[in-house]
Write a structure and sequence with these properties.
With 575 residues, the protein is α/β, with parallel strands linked by helices. It folds into 3 domains: 117 residues, OB fold (Dihydrolipoamide Acetyltransferase, E2P) (Beta Barrel); 255 residues, inorganic pyrophosphatase (n-terminal core), CATH 3.90.1640.30; 120 residues, Diaminopimelate Epimerase, Chain A, domain 1, CATH 3.10.310. 40% of the residues lie in helices and 19% in strands. The protein has 18 helices and 18 strands. A 5-stranded parallel beta sheet has the order 3-2-4-5-6, with helices on both faces. It has a 5-stranded mixed beta sheet with strand order 7-8-9-11-10. α9 crosses α10, α9 crosses α12 and α16 packs across α17. The radius of gyration is 25 Å and the shape is globular. The model has no long low-confidence stretch (mean pLDDT 95).
């Protein structure tokens, strides 16, 4: 089904003013205006984000007691255990905090749970079997812990303090930890709600460094440069699909600069293994090349392998780990394809599934590590929330993904009485329930989705920034567009619309990708532009010789010093 085009219409006066004061092409000014930027000062902050523009994190709820307790552990040489999550956000957050603490002289250890064997979050067993025997005095969670009441209580019973840092929706009541830093807390109005788990860990490091500076701690050892940790913030923030605005944008831009310098051998090796070049890595590359490989460790094996890679200083060892991650990523892709094909066959056999407001499916042989990715693909393809679960031993556990306009966390909260547990965000969540409640949950979830949505939410939409003639597509324009990055949620890569295009040449590359050169019909002498349409719909073959409309993004093929413009086709219309 073709998406519904939504053409943006910024105020002409705003576009004209931005183009004049920034001395930029009207296309660039239009995109800026579409992102809510109205003044020259706003544009300068957007185009040139600086770490100095970050909001001070000291007033975040829970920050003061957290800093005091961790500083006490540092100065008294207590054993600290950092407990993280098994995804890229959790892995980078754990390494960031460990790096800072080790710079401060504390040999903090990291524990990352096994996704399948242990599940998400801090558990009482981990406190009793790991922290207590090791003589841990303080546990600091990263990217988790907000709802781990039993584990926090177990730690307290054994004389272990817990500092929770998290960014997921904060359920009530709060765990009885010594301190809880979570910008989702109802009493935290500092504007950090969009931070990833690694972003929260970074802000904690900022406050720790400042407090240690105030007490003269750094007089006896080098004060760490936190900018060198921003590559981890960029990796975790992009991987967790956090809004690419405000502090996230500033930190990600700084992190991409550090990443492209190649100062972290493990990340440099991963960049090469992903077919990328240092100096050219973008947020999009993180999202589609680097993050999937990092996440593959936790999905297929153990996240410790990803942690080992990012902390590795030997390039030879890093290359070996990258080969293993590439193998895991290939296995992950095969599992996704298999599950997706099974579901597509179910939909073909039971088309009524797509008459429901959501897809809720469960099967006993699905690999739990890839269900979130498959659910996301289903949600995008069918414009409705998707919940996929694997069943075993009387329990169903899985992942859910939503569509814009439908708050998944609110929907699951309305089904709380049927669930054993759940957590996450408005667009992504995990859940577990007894298998004998699956039918009741499916019914209630469907009802709740209807209650929390409008009919138009289920219509696939493609927002277009403006119409763009191919004569204006140049390498210089595309480089200017790249300067509007990093792209991501709330700052999407610009999409343009061209009309009346002639297909000059075309061929299928790979198995389903359509490579073409296109020319505007009313410009027969104009230079054709290369284009690629990934996963082209088979119904578009034989390939038309003319397109009435083409929605596309723009990119540059850089090779041997040459810069060749390329259209990345999002959708085509032949009539």
């Amino acid at each position: 089904m073709k998406p519904l085009l939504q053409m943006r219409h910024p105020e002409p006066a705003v576009v004209e003013d931005l183009a004049k004061h920034l001395d930029c092409q009207p296309v660039i000014a239009t995109v800026l205006a579409n992102r809510g930027i109205r003044t020259h000062d706003e544009a300068q902050r957007f185009l040139f984000p600086k770490l100095g523009d970050l909001r001070p994190p000291f007033a975040m709820a829970g920050m003061t007691p957290a800093v005091k307790r961790i500083v006490s552990a540092i100065t008294n040489k207590e054993k600290i255990l950092i407990f993280g999550d098994y995804d890229a956000d959790g892995v980078t957050a754990a390494l960031l905090l460990q790096s800072f603490l080790r710079d401060a002289g504390n040999p903090a250890e990291v524990y990352l749970p096994h996704r399948i064997k242990e599940g998400y979050g801090l558990k009482s067993d981990q406190v009793l079997k790991v922290a207590v025997p090791a003589g841990i005095g303080l546990i600091v969670t990263v990217d988790c812990g907000a709802s781990n009441h039993e584990a926090v209580d177990a730690a307290s019973d054994h004389g272990i303090d817990v500092v929770v840092t998290d960014h997921h929706r904060q359920p009530m009541p709060l765990p009885r930890s010594l301190a809880l830093i979570n910008p989702q807390r109802s009493d935290c109005d500092t504007g950090f709600e969009s931070l990833a788990g690694v972003g929260v860990a970074f802000q904690l490091a900022v406050c720790l460094r400042s407090h240690l500076r105030n007490i003269g701690f750094w007089r006896s050892r080098p004060e760490p440069d936190l900018r060198r940790l921003c590559d981890l913030v960029a990796l975790g923030t992009v991987a967790d699909i956090c809004p690419m605005t405000g502090d996230n944008r500033i930190l990600t831009r700084a992190g991409l600069t550090v990443l492209n310098q190649g100062i972290r051998p493990g990340l440099a090796a991963l960049t090469a293994a992903s077919g990328l070049r240092l100096g050219q890595v973008t947020a999009t590359d993180i999202a589609f090349r680097l993050a999937p490989r990092i996440n593959a460790a936790g999905r297929i094996g153990h996240a410790g392998l990803a942690f080992e890679l990012l902390s590795e200083t030997d390039p030879v060892k890093a290359d070996t780990i990258c080969r293993r991650l590439n193998q895991m990523n290939s296995q992950r892709q095969d599992l996704e394809t298999e599950i997706l094909e099974q579901i597509q066959r179910q939909i073909e056999q039971r088309p009524e599934l797509l008459s429901a407001p959501a897809l809720v499916l469960a099967q006993d042989d699905w690999h739990p590590g890839v269900l979130g990715i498959v659910a996301a693909r289903l949600a995008r393809a069918h414009s409705r929330p998707a919940v996929l679960m694997t069943t075993a031993d009387g329990m169903a556990k899985g992942s859910a993904r939503s569509i814009p306009g439908v708050n998944l966390h609110a929907c699951l909260q309305a089904c709380e009485s049927l669930l054993e547990g759940f957590g996450g965000h408005a667009q992504a969540a995990g859940l577990s329930l007894c298998t004998d409640r699956l039918d009741d949950f499916s019914r209630r979830f469907m009802e709740t989705v209807v209650e929390h949505s409008h009919p138009e939410d289920f219509i696939s939409r493609l927002q277009v920034d403006c119409q763009l003639d191919l004569a204006l597509v140049t390498a210089d324009l595309i480089e200017a567009i790249e300067g509007l990055g990093p792209f991501g949620t709330d700052n999407p890569e610009p999409v343009f619309l061209a009309t009346d295009l002639t297909v000059v040449t075309s061929k299928i590359v790979g198995s389903r990708h359509l490579k073409m050169t296109l020319r505007q019909k009313d410009q027969p002498a104009g230079r054709p532009v290369e284009s690629i349409q990934f996963n082209a719909d088979s119904t578009d073959t034989p390939i038309p010789r003319f397109f009435k409309q083409v929605a596309f993004r723009l990119g540059l093929n850089r090779w041997n010093g040459n810069r060749t413009p390329q259209m990345i086709v999002e959708a085509v219309w032949t009539s």
